[in-house]
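ARCHIVE CARD
SHELF: 3
SLOT: left
DATA:
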Amino acid sequence: MPFRPLPKSFTDQLSQLNSDTEAVLELGSGEGHFMALVEAQGKHCLGLDLRHPVTGAVCNLVGDARRAPIRPGTVRLLVAANLVRHVLPRHKLGEHVAHWRSLLKSGGMLFIFEDEPSQSSAGVRNFKDLQAFLAQLMPEARGPLLSQEKFRHLVGAPTVPEGWTFGFQRNEETINASEVMRFLSAGDGAAEGGVAKLIRAIGRDGLDPGQYWWAQVGPIQSEG
């Protein structure tokens, strides 16, 4: 799910990258939506994903984001976009974030983005119901929506810790409701029950991603 527009805190850092020598690294690049956002702003983005490109992933490196095969202290701008809730064991989240921080060079930053549609419109409710259904349908690959408050608790940061910045952003990305309805209609049980109710609701009121939250770690200072 793309995040549009990206927060100013991120785009300010993006604008400072040297397009000839530096690139954003996205952990869990998936279908390449976030990479496309970066490339559209004239910057280069490398993707790391657990799946190989032949399976449909858009990535430059194949590897597990939890143990990213990247040399520590080498990344200027690191991104995890809708990654945390999908693939990381919740009880080890603090360890994973610490690992990601170790990849950053002096002055480097880590940005984390996650959907948190808290608005009460019909389209937003449909989006939340869709995410809950997908998490139940594919529990090995997707997790439930993760709030900023829950994330802070999981990483041991119930209040804003030193070196972290948090924020919320309205997501103006448009979702193709017809494609989603076709996907849902192809599954077993689509003709009745909860899935049929969700299809009808999407057909009537559409899908609205609502808002997302972001977290910024850094800039990391050199220990030397």
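SLOT: right
DATA:
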Amino acid sequence: MIGKILFGAMKMAALPNGSRGGERMSFHGIIPPVVTLFDEAGNLDLELNRRYLDKLISQNIHGILLMGSSGEFSSLSIEERKLYVREMIKHIRGRVKVMVGVGHTALKEVLELTAYAEELGADGVLVVSPYYWKLTDEQLYRFYSTVASHTELQVFIYNIPQLTGQNLPVELIVNLAKKHSNISGIKETVGDFGHIRQVITEVKKVRPDFLVFSAFDEHMLPAQMIGTAGSINGSAVFAPEISVDLYEAYQKGDLAEAQRNHQLISKLMDVYSYCPTFFTTMKEAVHMRWFDTAAGHRVPFDVYPSNLRENVRNLLKTIETKEGVQL
């Protein structure tokens, strides 16, 4: 493990991609699961994606997740995913830590994408459990063990039962953490807050350095209070400063400021109700806030509610973002 996060009462000020006591910091803090920007024809717009990442980094985020669910990885070919990840890692140039989503239903493709991310210099990979079929705990253990055994990167388990069809049991996570030192943590995209608590409680008995990240925005503050390392949350892709302020305020013990930002984030939760594919909504918010071009959407996601942009515009007004919103 390349560094440890101190939890709970042992608060530590965030050091973006820095070090303490000569050790490199591990993943921590706010890691936006970035959306992938297309042109109006639905093709990758690499230059616009570079500009977008610069906007996020300027807001003092602590890391970036490329090709997560919000990044629409399931809509891209393997070749497109490699092109995007290669160009974005090259552009980030080590300014923040980079986690790469390598989700796929075929293990061979997961291993190929993981090896490619390692070759490019990524800091870690996020591995969603295979979807479509429901797997037994033994099959899931075999899957994650195979991935961990084929890379020296930090491997993060991705638990998102609403899209995979099954919740990863706490016992499975504990066993994987015990067996593989490079399985460094988990992203918990679960509505059951008790599950997050159980994971933290049980896994840290065997792996004190294991990192748990919350995903649902409204979980961010209470999850920090019970020991998460940070959040990989949706609203951070278009309003990162709110999440960053909340995280850093809590690390400093400023609970009033953390609460203020928690209340701001609660106003953003309607973003998940405007369109079933929430990345569509987030992409509109990114464009409306920072760019003067229309958001590009790939078929079939170019079909969305007619009032989507109006809803996004009104949502951005409610949070009074610190930069001018393009309306």
